[in-house]
Write a structure and sequence with these properties.
- The protein is an alpha/beta fold.
- The protein folds into 2 domains: 306 residues, Vaccinia Virus protein VP39 (Rossmann fold), CATH 3.40.50.150; 30 residues.
- It is built from 11 helices and 9 strands.
- Strands 3-2-1-4-5-7-6-8-9 form a 9-stranded mixed beta sheet.
- Helix 6 links the parallel strand 2 and strand 3.
- It is globular.
């Protein structure tokens, strides 16, 4: 142990290049934890996806950026990199980025440590990340001073919260991600922007909580874009997800959908990359229709369910059911073929 400590103590990461390399090594380690099914990986969101989300939301220097499910702090770290490259930074800009731009909360101890270290390695010397349960805060107690300009997050999939935690929210549900979405909508300033990853079942579930939450989102925010991601985007998580892009303060009139259709299956050895998302990032600027994108008027959405299911008009993915008589005819044909084969076998015996 002493030899190892002496070796580590001899390492020097003084230049920006050396620190940048170390941060890449650190994130690669977090990713590998996820690929190996270890605990740290559950806090890892694919970096190509995060970079694209940040690019679409396009934060500006002086915005307060928040992630209430911070995990490994990927959204905050990539936002920092994006803002550093957005313009030539002044001394005041650097101070703003260091002290009053990035904020996060994390419930789990391991994720909290991973996130803090990731921010430090990216160059934020004193991260504003708090070790706490975000959902323990009653939404009614949030004040204007508590709000943020930007929310970027990937809340946990499939978690369940206790009844006493649910009492903090107007829409009662045990689904952790749905509680987080209510929290994000509430904590955004008027005119604030969000980019949030959530299970795709949120768009179509018929339970009261899902319907009420979709109604809340559409009436209080402009849900301008929905990115539909393929299965396998999240290594080790067998769920399909979407990304919701919205602005708080004006109701939704039209939603632009983009369905990411790739010519390969995603997985540990074939992960999502930025090139996969390039077409989405380009089309999102104009919200043009294409083979993978289309728009839906909210006036055409069923007001009883607010169903936002992803239904690409350019693709026919419906299962074509065969007629019973066709099935019976094929059975007769196969039986005849089998009988002929058996008869031939008998002649050879």
């Amino acid at each position: 142990m002493r030899e190892v400590l002496n070796l580590i103590d001899g390492l020097r990461f003084r230049s920006k290049k050396e620190k940048h390399e170390l941060s890449h090594l650190y994130e690669a380690k977090i990713k590998n934890m996820g690929n190996a099914g270890r605990n740290g990986g559950e806090y890892y969101t694919p970096r190509p996806l995060i970079k694209t989300i940040v690019k679409v939301v396009a934060p500006k220097i002086a915005n307060k950026i928040y992630d209430g499910a911070v995990g490994s702090a990927g959204f905050l770290a990539e936002s920092f990199e994006y803002l550093k490259a957005s313009r030539e930074l002044t001394t005041k800009d650097v101070e703003t980025l260091q002290k009053s731009t990035f904020y996060g909360k994390e419930k789990k101890g391991l994720a909290y440590i991973i996130g803090i270290m990731n921010m430090i390695l990216h160059g934020i010397e004193a991260p504003n990340i708090v070790h706490t349960n975000t959902l323990a805060v009653n939404l009614a107690d949030l004040q204007e001073k508590d709000r943020y300009d930007i929310v970027l997050a990937n809340p946990p999939f499939g978690g369940k919260e206790r009844a006493e935690v649910q009492q903090n929210f107007p829409i009662k549900t045990g689904e952790t991600a749905f509680l987080f979405l209510q929290h994000f909508i509430k904590i955004l300033k008027a005119g604030g922007k969000g980019g949030v990853v959530i299970k795709n079942t949120f768009l179509s579930n018929t339970d009261n909580a899902s319907v009420s939450l979709r109604k809340l989102l559409l009436e209080n925010c402009n849900l301008h874009t929905v990115l539909d991601l393929p299965g396998g985007t999240f290594t080790g998580a067998g769920v399909k997800t979407v990304v919701l892009f919205f602005e708080k303060g004006t109701p939704t009139k039209k939603v632009w959908f983009y369905q990411l259709n790739l010519d390969r299956n995603l997985g540990k050895t074939n992960p999502l990359n930025e090139a996969d998302l390039a077409d989405f990032a380009a089309l999102q600027k104009t919200k043009a229709d294409s083979a993978n994108s289309w728009s839906v008027d909210v006036a055409d959405i069923d007001p009883a369910t607010f169903d936002l299911s992803v239904k690409n008009p350019s693709r026919n993915d419906e299962v074509q059911h065969r007629k019973p008589q066709d099935i019976m005819a094929e059975i007769v044909r196969l039986d005849a073929e089998s009988a002929a084969v058996l008869a031939k076998i008998k002649t050879l015996l």
